[in-house]
Specification:
The chain has 77 residues and is mainly alpha-helical. Helix content is 65%, strand content 0%. Helix 1 crosses helix 2 and helix 2 packs across helix 3.
């Protein structure tokens, strides 16, 4: 949630409307926030961070498209 709040702050600074798409930040905000908080408990490996940064955007986009097609989301982004 912290990553999302920080991203939302910067979206408002850019006068972007709520709910508008901002690629790739929409896909990575929660991941970066989670990595920061998780690093307090255990430092992630560089390989692990790279894998997450590479896999998260396409998985996030695919899940949004699926949720849109089955009627859970109104917009596919």
């Amino acid at each position: 949630m912290t990553g999302d709040a920080v991203k939302s702050f910067f979206k408002r600074q850019r006068d972007m409307p709520p709910g508008s798409s901002w690629f790739p930040f929409d896909q990575l905000d929660f991941l970066i926030g989670a990595l920061i908080f998780a690093s307090v408990v255990e430092t992630p490996t560089l390989f692990g961070v790279i894998v997450l940064l590479v896999l998260t955007p396409p998985l996030h986009l695919m899940s949004n498209i699926v949720h849109h097609r089955i009627g859970i989301k109104e917009v596919p982004h």
